[in-house]
Specification:
The complex is a heterodimer of chains A (about 400) and B (about 110). Chain A is of the alpha+beta class and about 400 residues long. Chain A is built from 15 helices and 10 strands. The chains are: A alpha+beta (about 400), B alpha+beta (about 110).
């Protein structure tokens, strides 16, 4: 039986961002998948080493436009760990509010994209119209629709004043109603069910083995969420349920994300009702003490890990970002490979890739290796990285 | 088919989008904390250079004029993070609600 490879990308109508997939196909069935990443390398980590800690905040925000709050929360709390200081409680609550609003907006965006990928453009249009509600709320709170510029080292920059709470509560009620409606649509609509059920299967064992993160992992039935396992900001007080689903496919990821949106709405409402009073930020010196630290945040796409090493100057000596999409990349190759009864058709590729909510530009700094002690710099392809990982 | 009722209902509703650049400019609402074009008040500035130190995108350059040190702003590089406005000890920098200020060359977007 002969197989042949079809290249998809780096520029392809099905992909929103430059990424190259090479898929081996046997007729209609995909039997092997390879990915080559690195087309959107931005050099952010190196740029961060030449800027001060406060100048880095807008830069970190631009690692990813959609989950910008997760990245800034991760960065700022990472630097706060270096100072070994905890920020005012009210600031932590405001961070949770902004973060959850960001998650709602990201999940609704994804829901629209999946609607588009399965050929259900009506869903796409209506979801994105309702997403404007949360975008307007983010704008009201922070002054901008996307780049919030809300977090700073030592707290948050704008307070959540009482006059902003009324529209926020109203918006949350509206969004809750709409999200429940979309949940019903997803469960009833044959178009969605036919294109999402049994597609992109990732068994729980594979999910753990390939270290999938975020909703992809939770849709495989694994209960793991940084907000629950290692609470940061005010997550130790704000109650929520970790949503899991056991179908292990794109449909499961859909339901997990919709339910997480509902949880996030509940968390925002809890924060508004239980907002402690007090200051929203504290002043810190420009130079954190010598040391290193790691911080983890549950971004909308999964676990986001930042590492910083300080040498006592006002610029970081090393900064490393592991954004969630990179964690999901091995899993996506597994999902794209037919094995046994599980068959992946070429038509399923876009929805499987979209199913992990990929954010290629977030991820693309992560494959460059720099060894300052030996003054060596090299770039690895995915294959080399896998071989390296296998040797370890 | 599950959404068909919703779709029909919206046939009789108002358009959700705003025809921004050509019509309905008044419908564009800006939040109170909007970060738009910078405004600079020379008479308040003490030339401390804090804005220069926090700017992430090298928008600000410190020069010396007849009244002493002062910043000038290359707004084509500005990311509108408002860190300069926040750190200014004498409120000499302000973010206005003006967001339509493109120019054909860099001199037009230079704020002095």
């Amino acid at each position: 039986m002969s197989t042949f490879s079809i290249p998809i990308g780096p520029q392809h109508p099905a992909l929103k961002e430059p990424e190259s997939f090479t898929l081996t196909v046997d007729g209609e069935h995909v039997v092997g998948a390879k990915v080559r990443i690195g087309y959107a390398h931005k050099g952010i980590e190196k740029a961060m080493e030449s800027r001060t800690y406060i100048q880095n905040i807008p830069l970190v925000e631009r690692i990813c436009g959609i989950c910008n709050v997760a990245h800034t929360v991760c960065y700022t709390q990472n630097v706060e760990y270096l100072y070994e200081k905890s920020i005012p409680r009210r600031a932590e609550y405001v961070r949770v509010v902004i973060e959850e609003l960001n998650r709602i907006h990201s999940h609704l965006l994804w829901l629209g994209i999946v609607g588009h990928e399965v050929g259900f453009d009506t869903l796409f249009m209506y979801v994105w119209r309702d997403r404007e509600v949360v975008m307007d709320l983010i704008e009201l709170l922070t002054g901008n629709r996307v780049s919030t510029a809300m977090n700073t080292v030592g707290g948050v920059r704008r307070d959540l004043t009482p006059d902003k709470m009324t529209p926020l509560r109203k918006g949350m009620r509206l969004l809750e109603e709409r999200t429940k409606y979309y949940r019903k649509i997803a469960l009833d609509e044959p178009t969605v069910l036919a294109r999402a059920k049994g597609v992109g299967v990732l068994t729980p064992n594979e999910a753990i083995e390939l270290s999938a993160v975020g909703p992809t992992l939770r849709a495989s039935g694994i209960k793991a969420d940084v907000r629950m396992d290692d609470p940061y900001a005010a997550h130790d007080e704000v109650p929520f349920n970790v949503i899991t689903y056991d179908t292990c496919d794109v449909f499961g990821r859909l339901i997990v994300r919709i339910d997480e949106t509902l949880e996030s709405i509940g968390m925002v409402q809890y924060c508004l009702d239980n907002m402690p009073s007090g200051p929203i930020r504290m002043r810190l010196t420009n130079t954190p003490p010598i040391g290193e630290s790691v911080s983890r945040v549950e971004a909308p796409r999964g676990e986001d890990i930042h590492y910083v090493r300080s040498n006592g100057t006002e610029k970081p000596a090393r900064y490393k970002v592991r954004s969630p999409t990179l964690g999901n990349m091995p899993a996506i190759l597994e999902m794209l490979t037919s094995k046994g009864d599980y068959v992946v058709r070429i038509a399923d590729i876009p929805v499987v890739i979209a199913g992990i909510d990929p954010c290629m530009c977030c991820m693309d700094r992560s494959i460059r290796f720099i060894d300052p002690s030996r003054e060596k710099e090299w770039v690895w392809s995915w294959d080399q990285l896998k071989k390296y990982a296998a040797r370890r | 088919m599950a959404m068909i009722r919703e779709v029909y209902r919206h046939l009789f509703k108002k358009r959700a989008t705003v025809l921004y650049p050509f019509k309905e400019r008044e419908k564009v609402h800006l939040p109170t904390d909007f970060r738009g074009k910078l405004a600079f008040y020379r008479e308040r500035c003490i030339g401390c250079g804090l804005c220069f130190r926090v700017c992430p995108s090298e928008t600000i350059e410190m020069i010396t004029d007849e009244q002493g040190k002062r910043p000038i702003f290359y707004l084509d590089r500005c990311t509108f993070c408002a860190q300069c406005e926040e750190i200014c000890p004498v409120d000499a920098i302000e973010m206005t609600a003006d967001f339509e200020f493109v120019g054909f060359n860099r001199k037009e977007t230079l704020l002095k």
